[in-house]
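Good morning,

Attaching, inline, the backbone tokens for the sequence recovery test we're adding to the shared suite. The designed sequence is right after.
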């Protein structure tokens, strides 16, 4: 709740689900007894601001917080129960969240599928791996949008992108020590003079 208020002060609107044990969430919305039927909801508004807390009963209780919805605005919702189609009412907060949540959920799904790094209790390590994974996912999205690949496959999966990314980053690196110090020497015999010759073993004792 303090975060949403802070964002609203900067002119940034937000909407999303919330856990009922979060600091500042109204106690009256945690487990309201009056919401017995599917489609029932309850909304609380913080003063005269746009900050609202909402609980809506679908199959279970769903809690939202928003700074972009009118608390008096409700929308139609359809839910299927067996062969029967139920006509319900839902707050605008729930409607806006279900309409625009796809991008964030897909990004989290892509990020969790091939996550890089390991869990850590140190916040800076978690932040570092989180930003790195987000950068890889964003690069894959941009890569698919702007690049035309000469391949017969219609899809270019994230795994294929990560494999190409690793090949590009690793390049010709090798863990083995190079005695030449990375300098490439010219061969003693030119490759064009090798054709037509046959390697044979010379007679006599081998000398060093």
């Amino acid at each position: 709740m303090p975060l949403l208020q802070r964002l609203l002060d900067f002119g940034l609107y937000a909407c999303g689900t919330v856990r009922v044990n979060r600091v500042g969430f109204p106690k009256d919305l945690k487990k309201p007894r009056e919401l017995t039927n599917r489609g029932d909801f309850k909304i609380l508004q913080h003063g005269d601001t746009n900050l609202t807390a909402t609980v809506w009963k679908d199959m279970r209780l769903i809690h939202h917080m928003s700074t972009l919805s009118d608390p008096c605005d409700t929308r139609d919702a359809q839910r299927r129960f067996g062969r029967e189609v139920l006509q319900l009412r839902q707050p605008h907060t729930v409607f806006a969240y279900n309409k625009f949540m796809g991008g964030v959920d897909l990004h989290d799904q892509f990020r969790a599928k091939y996550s890089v790094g390991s869990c850590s209790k140190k916040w800076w390590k978690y932040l570092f791996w989180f930003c790195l994974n987000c950068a890889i996912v964003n690069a894959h999205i941009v890569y698919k949008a702007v690049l035309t690949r000469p391949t017969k496959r219609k899809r270019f999966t994230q795994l294929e992108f990560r494999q190409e990314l690793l090949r590009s980053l690793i390049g010709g690196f090798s863990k083995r020590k190079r005695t030449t110090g990375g300098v490439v020497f010219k061969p003693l015999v030119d490759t064009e003079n090798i054709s037509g010759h046959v390697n044979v073993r010379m007679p006599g004792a081998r000398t060093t």
